[in-house]
Amino acid sequence: MTADSANEFTKRSFLTLEQAIRNDLAEGRLAVDRRLPSERELAERYRTTRITLREALSHLEMDGLIYRENRRGWFVSDRRLVYNPLWRTDFQRMTREQNRQASTELIEAVSAVAPDDICALLEQPSGTEFWRIRRRRRVDDRLVVFVEHHLSKAVFADILEQDLTGSLTNLYREKYALEYGDVSFEINPVALTGMSATELHCSDGTFGLQIVRVNRDQTGRILDCDVEYWRHDAVSIRIDTRDSIP
Amino acid sequence: MTADSANEFTKRSFLTLEQAIRNDLAEGRLAVDRRLPSERELAERYRTTRITLREALSHLEMDGLIYRENRRGWFVSDRRLVYNPLWRTDFQRMTREQNRQASTELIEAVSAVAPDDICALLEQPSGTEFWRIRRRRRVDDRLVVFVEHHLSKAVFADILEQDLTGSLTNLYREKYALEYGDVSFEINPVALTGMSATELHCSDGTFGLQIVRVNRDQTGRILDCDVEYWRHDAVSIRIDTRDSIP
DNA sequence: TCACCTCTTTGGTATAGACCAGATGCGAGG
DNA sequence: CCTCGCATCTGGTCTATACCAAAGAGGTGA
Fold first, then answer.
1. Contacts of residue A86 in chain B, CB cutoff 8 Å?
2. Would residue B243 count as lying in a domain?
3. Kind plus residue range of the DSSP H or E element containing B116
4. Which residues of B touch A85 (CB under 8 A)?
5. Residue A101 belongs to a domain with what CATH number?
6. Tens digit of pLDDT for each residue in B134-189?
């Protein structure tokens, strides 16, 4: 930040601090390589305390302008990824169509008893075991979503032998000759906690968007259930009934 | 409990302030007709400072357990309203089907130039005037959503003479013989600011869910555009392709 | 009855420190 | 070359206190 902009900021009210940071961000004075200076440094520059500064940063975070990675620092948010949960196009293709670059990491793939609510969604008795595949995805190198898939062990007997870092959609089609049919999903604003927070490198309690989706094949048989946890500033849900819903 | 873990217990109370409040909420010790004691009283009760206490309350707020009304206090959240933006059932009926009670307040109904992005969505040149209807809705007496409707002045010439506290869906059908056709919408997690925050009685910067919807009639003509701002803990979006999309 | 004013209570913002814990980079030792 | 451990960064949490501004209660006067 230049001496000028520091001088411009003379009033001490909270809103002006937030506005000052907003302006400096917009004009690219603050961030170097999308990364903001440390909180201590910012507090000094704006002649305020870390508590007050963090309050302002939290507001900008909620507004989707910046985000933080746990104990790593603050960063400037990129544009949102447009996402239609009714489409089962694979993630790579979806991001490519938006001129973004995506990657997927496999966290685990095991057999496990699903929680009761998931069993209910999958129309199986509580305590049923499913394949549990946990992955996380990046867009332009930023961690944006943590996904937990629950798959029928009967239908996908040998899924663990497949490459699970790619598209499950394609795997279903190519290895199991399954095409998607109906879908249902639920979107909830939630706090990211536990594993979703850890894997996304954000602190416990960060705001996120949870999307729970149940996928069926053409015969109406339930195939799997995905539970996605998105960084809230990284995604925009968009649905249009004029699009065919395959 | 072993001696080791007892030792650990005395060293660091693994029951954090947040968890303590969480327990008190769950067991009904804290909620007195859904309102929490003042921050000062809570801080005293939990032997901590207001800053720390507010941090904990913010976490619970993000998690959707409690919410605040600007300078009025903290309240315990009720269950979420299930909402399908593809359905144009009127609000009253939707809430009744979930055993909730709804009400709508008209804030203003005027002719006004719509912002550029809204004009673009409505496929009209920038600077076009529309009817602008602003309303807010309550569920079980809690303010949950602020809505801004932009309607074609040509199609709805005399809409200001109608009762605008009721269902616009019904008005379209009964007074204008219009049925809904295709819909498209966009969901974004945002910070509530300005009018949306003021009208919802929440402080500037509170986290919310924005839903922008464009409605068409059966011939594909654009009817209107709704911009909704929801309190994040009050709504759950649910969509199922097996439901008919009228 | 009702508009208006005032006083109290509430959350909202701010100061100035301090220590903790995870992330990271670097250097020493294998 | 690689690994391990330590020093030093970062944000995360905390104490203690103060004043401000809006909301709400209650009283006052037309």
1. 239, 241
2. no
3. helix B116-121
4. 239
5. 3.40.1410.10
6. 999 999 989 999 999 999 998 898 898 888 988 898 888 888 888 888 999 999 99
